[in-house]
Write a structure and sequence with these properties.
The chain is an alpha/beta fold. The chain has two domains: about 100 residues, no CATH class; about 400 residues, Alpha-Beta Barrel (TIM Barrel), CATH 3.20.20. The N terminus is likely disordered. Helix 1 crosses helix 2 and helix 13 packs parallel to helix 14. The chain has 18 helices and 13 strands.
């Protein structure tokens, strides 16, 4: 039994005892006049019987708000306000009172203990590293909430943008390219590595080879005519320059790299056992690396070779742990394809470099930009199983859980979930069914969505803990909702004012 379950049961028992203490054996919807009791010396009036509704109200009022998660308490408080108003109204009928009392009693029973007695990093120190993203120096500024939360809850950092290829280098197709890091140059990525070094954090490098956000000089871009040979030469220069910069100036800080990012296409829910992962790559219309490696191939060569070359070159110039990273890895087919790719390329590397005891691809990152309504923990667990079947490690590399579906259907105006009423939870795009998804589920406000999101986070972390021996790190792709890259989906653990959501408490004690 988990700690949260123990707390929930204890809470239920406490609530039951409180309600029992306030209730008489026989309750009615209406208050009754109390009888008088007399004896030989005095006459006293007996205490008025407590109605069932009053007893439940008293039970709620005896609770301490700070003991419970914010969203579950808000629902109970709203139910209490409703019941109180009905009790005060002379025109309220018995059935309405009974229903309101039952609603409050259910809300009290659903309260969850807000247990967050230590930092998240401490909570999971025996399981895996817990990371967040780095945007700029404010991540470590103790004078702001962002810095305070980063220092309090995390021990690993991933650059949100500042270590992507187009942030470290520039130049058009056919040029030599220029690097923005190096001697006498100041860069946000250097701030990240330096602050991590000073404060005892590890850094995960994101990313070396990617079809997106890369300068055209490395691979010619989608409109270029760069040859396979030139692309490989440029790739080597880029990888060597970048990884050696961080290893030399901040030794031991950048402990891992996403060598290749998002090479596979999306929407691969199922694949046959004989499927070739090469047939599911982003091709020349999407990936300039694939296009360049298609230009000037010799017999026996394949456009997919850029992936193998990228990992071999990364291994040549750094001792950091090397990862392949992709999104929607909960899809059974996609995670199986990534695992197949890792297995085949590791076997190839072993045959070509038999003296290296390490695998070439040592882990696979599951980005985990997932939706709370259609990405259950079971599918995440299945993706993890598919990956570890390839005998490589897992990282949860970019975790945030979106509250609206599909991708661009979030409400247009940002609001914290706690402030969203029924009119504010309707999606902005998609079919009528998609827009009104939550309404059709009987949910009428953002607080209820916040509770669903917290449940999903708790389910995910239970899975992560079950497979902790295979998971290096879990990294959240942000801190508060409003500053997240998909802010309209309210995907993170903190509100815009940095108050914790129920999701925070769910992760603290799943």
């Amino acid at each position: 039994m988990t700690t949260r379950k123990k707390h929930f049961i204890m809470t239920g028992l406490v609530i039951a005892s409180i309600v029992t203490a306030f209730m008489l054996p026989s309750c009615s919807s209406n208050k009754t006049e109390a009888p008088t009791v007399t004896n030989e010396s005095t006459t006293t009036e007996a205490a008025a019987p407590v109605s069932e509704q009053d007893a439940i109200m008293n039970a709620f009022e005896a609770l301490n708000e700070e003991d419970y998660t914010p969203a579950t308490y808000r629902l109970a408080e709203a139910a209490a306000d409703e019941l109180s108003a009905l009790i005060d109204s002379a025109s309220t009928d018995t059935a309405t009172l009974d229903q309101a009392a039952d609603d409050l009693q259910q809300a009290i029973a659903a309260l969850r203990i807000g247990n967050a007695s230590q930092s998240l990093a401490q909570t999971y120190e025996d399981y895996f590293l817990l990371g967040t993203i780095f945007g700029d120096k404010s991540n470590f500024d103790t004078n702001n909430d962002r810095g305070a939360l980063t220092r309090a809850h995390f021990n690993s950092l991933t650059a949100e943008n500042c270590m992507k290829p187009d942030q470290l280098s520039s130049g058009g197709a056919g040029t030599e390219g220029a690097f923005m890091i190096g001697e006498s140059k100041s860069h946000t990525a250097d701030d990240l590595a330096s602050l991590a070094q000073e404060n005892g954090y590890t850094v995960h490098g994101h990313v070396l080879v990617w079809h997106s956000q890369s300068p055209a000089w490395v691979n010619g871009g989608l409109a270029g005519e760069t040859t396979r040979e030139q692309a490989k030469t440029n790739m080597e220069l880029y990888i060597k320059t970048v990884v050696e910069h961080f290893d030399t100036n901040y030794p031991g800080v950048v402990t891992s790299w996403d060598v290749v990012n998002e090479a596979l296409v999306d929407g691969v829910n199922t694949v046959s056992a004989s499927a070739d992962w090469r047939n599911f790559l982003r091709e020349s219309d999407q990936s300039a690396w694939y296009k360049a490696y298609s230009n000037g191939m010799a017999e026996g060569e394949d456009p997919s070779d850029y992936i193998y070359d990228a990992f071999v070159l990364a291994r040549k110039y750094t001792d950091a742990k090397l990862f392949y990273n992709d999104f929607n890895m909960y899809q059974d087919g996609k995670s199986k394809l990534a695992a197949k790719m890792a297995t085949e390329l590791n076997e190839k590397y072993k045959s070509e470099y038999p003296d290296d005891p390490r695998k070439l691809i040592e882990g696979i990152g599951m980005q985990s930009h997932n939706y709370i309504m259609d990405t259950p923990a079971l599918s995440v667990e299945n993706g993890i199983k598919n990956i570890i079947a390839a005998d490589v490690d897992v990282v949860i590399s970019e975790l945030d859980l979106f509250c609206w579906f599909p991708w661009n259907a979030e409400p247009t105006a940002y609001m914290d979930l706690k402030d969203r009423g029924e009119e504010d939870i309707i999606g902005s795009q998609g079919s009528s069914t998609e827009k009104n998804y939550w309404i059709t589920k009987g949910i009428t406000n953002g607080t209820e969505i916040e509770i669903v999101q917290a449940e999903r986070y708790a389910e995910y972390f239970k899975v992560y803990m079950d497979y902790a021996e295979h998971i290096d790190r879990v990294t959240f792709w942000g801190l508060n909702d409003q500053q997240n890259w998909r802010s309209g989906h309210n995907p993170m653990l903190w509100n815009s004012d940095w108050t914790p959501k129920d999701a925070f408490f769910a992760v603290s004690d799943p």
